[in-house]
Amino acid sequence: MLPISVALVDEQPLIVDGLVRLLSRTGDFHVVATGSSAPDVVDICRTHQPNVVVIDPCIAGDVYELVASVVRIAPNTKVVTFTAAQGVEPAIVALDAGASGYVMKRCSSRELVRAIASAHSGETYITQMFARDVIARLQDPSLRRKAAKDLVLKCRECQIAHLLMIGRTSEEIATALKISEKTLENHMAILRHKLQVHNRREAVIAAQKFRFSLVTH
Is residue 79 left, alpha or beta, with left meaning phi > 0 and alpha meaning psi from -120 to 50? Predict the structure, then answer.
């Protein structure tokens, strides 16, 4: 039996390296490509057509659009989202867009391996701690739409917090995220409110302290 071809995309190189080592040890998987951005996901799926692509949905501003793009470009490629974001909303958005798996980064290596294998076999895998809630809410279209809207904001704020922490200016952040500086300021206002701070410096300190807890529930 041929190994399952897998692509891995995460903005943190250490996570990607760890996943490559994990999957290579089993003998059941072959990592055909790695990347760190949303454009990488599209390029990899178009070029390599892996059986499964494992992505962190927060590398993109719109996870729904990213997953839908994979489904459109490589219909035989299954998507497993691998994320630190907790709660049912991120899972609802990813699965509704066409993902076949939703796994928490704090899960065991065994669970991630099971999710990839399940996706490849045509099944849907959801982190067990809230699978029942996700399935129930997926049946309600209005809840799916609300989850999509909320998650875009949460991921974007996480991206902004990360760029602030590495010292990027407002202009650089807006350019990196392909948004206007006015839109950036709107997101910054929401970010400051969530972190309960009053200015950019306090936002950086709070983001470092809470380690992006703004995307968790």
Answer: beta
Residues 65, 124 within the same domain: yes
Which residue range is the domain that position 211 belongs to? 142-215
37 and 104 inside one domain: yes
pLDDT tens across 121-146, in order? 998 888 766 655 555 555 555 555 55
Give me 179's structure tokens: 């948004």
DSSP tag of 2:
P
Say how many C-beta atoms besides its own lie within 10 A of residue 132's C-beta.
11
Q: Which CATH number does the domain housing residue 30 bear?
A: 3.40.50.2300
Using a 10 angstrom Cβ sphere, with 0-12 exposed, 13-18 middle and 19 or more buried, the burial of residue 217 is exposed
Find out whether 59 and 10 touch, Cβ atoms under 8 Å.
yes
